[in-house]
């Protein structure tokens, strides 16, 4: 028996649960279930990351106190995961009092060890990442965060620095000693070269806002949100759980997306070492998985929120979503979540392969043995082959689960089902029964044994379908117990001859062409349409808005996704060789003015716009007009391109939000 402690990132409450966050969470739960199945004691942690400037700002925009805002969104996460059959052991919030107490204690330990000093910080900060950026990381023009494509902010303030530089050598030694600490290998190399290129001390507190954990003895500072957030992995465990799950005998695994690898593999171990924790008290592994696209498109905020994992789960069942996430994407690599492929795989792997194996076997048992488990007679080469192949594939599945390759584990599991389907075709019990009923019974008993094995092997990925399948086989749900390994190793002995079976219809009813189309129409969001519609007004020649009747109603949440801001035009010039385009810089109350390119030149001279107050769609994805001319927003206007009227707001300062 071992112990297995698996964590997901704690998710920012500036967003609701989406397919990306569901991905990490589902994988964590599947791994947890696999470890439970092999008899390990397990603990799964997830939660929400609630402090910091990003959340404070968003709460303000929503007109709520930060805590109230966090309460609302955190609840959405807490409720969402059980709907995907994720059974976490603790849902931590960084506003939980025990977390806060732990973080303060960690800070004090680090301070006592001389790794925190007061200084002045001046550099770039991306509020979206809640991270400092070096000059060379920024995209130009406009000093943009390479991830969020938004201008970074200049931060200049008193700060407590963490002596990260001191930990450069110990970290490199750690990576050398523990090759499995950073996984997969490619990610390890990235981190190695980052640390080898030299670590600067880290600004670890802020004074320009208050939504955070106050620094002990200097409460005008709040702690850097990542200092606070990373600590959750230890603060979440009470004394008893800590002794059991963060001990040398336990495996501590942090699952993260590749976007937050550095925080987990550089800052987090450095904080722990600095606070006096020993090397064996560090997590065992940080596994960084890839990023998902949806139907081939990058998961921008509007798209990712339009693809609601809960909706997919409600339509097809949580197991189907889980299967697709675990099987279709090679864990560790970037991958695509494709709706058409989801339905295709549903029909093929689930309906025709596994589902059909169950229904045809139970159908034959009903016909040939009165719906009861037939007796197993002597085995021939056909059965021996299937028994041997199943054993081999089960070993591969087990190794793949242990090796953090759920996609391979499921591939091996489904290969068992495919082998069993081939076996039925070859054995042809429906023909054998005419000449040798005992032989036909052996065929069916063999198939039932293979199904019993499959019903257990799918449990980590598809717990609900495992239960349903086992009920049809007349078996109890898979019972896990600490110290007992119930993940199957071979087939045989699960069923008793004469026991009743309980067929209950197809496990995965297949969709015909018409039903499939309807399903896809319900599942696939019409984001592309929406996004291009907005974007066309940002195009060089804005089409005159033609208000032919009312547009379809949208919800307030839909409207709230559009970030409309008051801006003041600072400079404006014609774009050479483009009749309609003007290049503007617009003050939106941010650290740096934005560059916006707009198709206004047929209606306005450049000079006429300088000093004008305008309304800007501030969160529109940047649009590249070629040759490095990028627009970071769109001005609202109405009318034909030769006679445009600009929307304006008279009495509001730059940056004010329209709502
Ligand atoms: O970074 N594909 O929170 P976050 C795959 N609060 N995974 C994705 C994804 C995508 N397109 N988008 C998001 C934070 N994820 C911090 C973490 S931990 C101490 C603090 C997943 O809400 C992936 O796991 O931005 C990624 O690392 C995480 O969501 C980021 O979540």
Layout: helices, strands, pairs:
Layout: E1 3-12, H1 19-37, E2 41-49, H2 53-61, H3 66-83, E3 90-93, H4 97-112, E4 116-126, E5 131-133, E6 153-162, H5 168-177, E7 182-183, H6 185-196, E8 202-203, E9 205-206, E10 214-215, E11 218-223, H7 225-230, H8 232-235, H9 239-245, E12 250-257, H10 261-274, E13 285-289, E14 292-294, E15 297-298, H11 301-306, H12 309-316, H13 318-328, E16 335-337, H14 339-369, H15 381-402, H16 406-427, H17 429-435, H18 437-457, H19 463-472, H20 513-523, H21 527-536, H22 556-560, E17 564-574, E18 582-587, E19 594-598, H23 606-609, E20 613-617, E21 623-624, E22 630-631, E23 634-635, E24 637-638, E25 645-646, E26 657-658
Parallel strand pairs: 1-2, 1-12, 2-3, 7-13, 12-13, 14-16
Antiparallel strand pairs: 4-5, 4-6, 6-8, 9-11, 10-11, 14-15, 17-18, 17-20, 17-26, 18-19, 20-23, 21-22, 24-25
Helix pairs in contact: 2-3, 5-6, 12-13, 13-14, 13-16, 14-16, 14-18, 15-16, 15-18, 16-18, 17-18, 18-19
This protein binds ligand ME8.
The site of ligand ME8 has 20 residues, from strand 1, helix 1, helix 7 and strand 12.
Largest sheet: 6 strands, parallel
| Major beta sheet, strand line-up | 3-2-1-12-13-7
- Give the CATH superfamily of the largest domain: HUPs
What's the alpha carbon Rg, rounded to whole Å?
A: 29 Å
Provide the domain count. Answer: 3
CATH class of the largest domain: Alpha Beta
Report mean pLDDT, rounded to a whole number: 91
Helical/strand content category: alpha+beta
Number of DSSP helical runs: 23
Q: What coarse outline follows from CA principal-axis ratios?
A: globular
Looking at the overall shape, the CATH architecture of the largest domain is 3-Layer(aba) Sandwich
Ligands bound to this protein structure: ligand ME8
Helix content: 40-55%
Q: How much strand?
A: 15-25%
Low-confidence stretches: 528-550
């Amino acid at each position: 028996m071992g112990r297995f402690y698996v964590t997901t990132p704690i998710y920012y409450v500036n967003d609701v649960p989406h397919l990306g966050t569901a991905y990490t969470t589902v994988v964590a739960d599947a791994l947890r279930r696999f470890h439970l199945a092999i008899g390990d004691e397990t603990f799964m942690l997830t939660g929400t990351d609630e402090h910091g400037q990003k959340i404070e700002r968003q709460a303000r925009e929503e007109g709520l106190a930060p805590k109230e805002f966090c309460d609302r969104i955190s609840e959405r996460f807490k409720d969402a995961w059980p709907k995907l059959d994720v059974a976490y052991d603790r849902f931590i919030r960084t506003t939980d009092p025990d977390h806060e107490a732990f973080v303060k204690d960690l800070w004090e330990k680090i301070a006592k060890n001389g790794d925190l000093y007061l200084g002045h910080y001046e550099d770039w900060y991306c509020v979206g990442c809640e991270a400092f950026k070096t000059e060379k990381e920024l995209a130009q023009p406009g000093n943009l965060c390479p991830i969020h494509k938004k201008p970074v902010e200049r931060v200049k303030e008193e700060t407590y620095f963490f002596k990260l530089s001191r930990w450069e050598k110990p970290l490199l030694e750690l990576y050398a000693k523990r090759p499995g600490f950073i996984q997969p290998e490619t990610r390890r190399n990235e981190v190695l070269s980052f640390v080898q290129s030299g670590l600067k001390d880290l600004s670890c507190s802020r004074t320009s806002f208050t939504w955070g954990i106050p620094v002990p003895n200097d409460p005008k500072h709040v702690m850097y949100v990542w200092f606070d957030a990373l600590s959750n992995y230890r603060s979440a465990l009470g004394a008893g759980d800590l002794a059991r799950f963060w001990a040398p005998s336990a495996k501590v695994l942090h699952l993260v997306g590749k976007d937050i690898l550095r925080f987990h593999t550089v800052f987090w171990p450095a904080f722990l070492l600095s606070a006096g924790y020993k090397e064996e008290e560090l997590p065992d592994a940080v596994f960084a998985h890839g990023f998902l696209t949806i139907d081939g498109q990058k998961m921008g905020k509007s798209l990712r929120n339009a693809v609601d994992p809960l909706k997919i789960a409600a339509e097809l069942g949580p197991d189907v979503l889980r299967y697709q996430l675990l099987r279709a994407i090679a864990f560790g690599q970037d991958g695509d979540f494709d709706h058409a492929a989801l339905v295709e795989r549903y029909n093929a792997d689930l309906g025709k392969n596994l589902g059909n194996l169950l229904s045809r076997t139970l159908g034959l048992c009903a016909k040939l043995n009165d719906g009861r488990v037939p007796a197993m007679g002597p085995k021939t080469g056909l059965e021996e082959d299937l028994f041997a192949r199943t054993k081999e594939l089960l070993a591969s599945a087990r190794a793949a689960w242990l090796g953090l390759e759920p996609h391979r584990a499921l591939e091996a599991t489904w290969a068992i089902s495919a082998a069993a389907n081939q076996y039925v075709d070859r054995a042809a019990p429906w023909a054998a029964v005419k000449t040798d009923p005992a032989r036909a019974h052996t065929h069916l008993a063999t198939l039932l044994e293979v199904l019993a094995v499959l019903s257990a092997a799918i449990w980590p990925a598809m717990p609900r379908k495992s239960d349903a399948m086992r009920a049809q086989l007349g078996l109890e749900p898979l019972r896990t117990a600490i110290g007992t390994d119930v993940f199957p190793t071979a087939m045989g002995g699960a069923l008793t001859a004469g026991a009743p079976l309980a067929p209950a219809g197809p496990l995965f009813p297949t969709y015909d062409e018409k039903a499939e189309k309807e399903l896809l129409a319900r599942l696939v969001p019409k984001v592309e349409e929406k996004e291009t519609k907005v974007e066309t007004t940002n195009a060089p020649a804005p089409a005159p808005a033609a208000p032919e009747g009312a547009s379809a109603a949208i919800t307030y949440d839909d409207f709230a996704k559009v970030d409309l801001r008051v801006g003041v035009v600072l400079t404006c010039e014609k774009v050479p060789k483009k009749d309609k385009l003007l290049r503007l810089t617009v003050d939106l109350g941010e650290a740096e003015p934005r560059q916006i390119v707009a198709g206004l030149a047929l209606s306005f001279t450049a000079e006429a716009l300088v000093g004008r107050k305008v309304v800007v769609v501030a969160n529109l994805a940047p649009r590249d007009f070629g040759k490095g001319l990028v627009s970071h927003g769109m001005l609202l206007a109405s009318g034909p391109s030769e006679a445009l009227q600009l929307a304006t707001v008279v009495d509001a300062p730059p940056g004010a939000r329209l709502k």
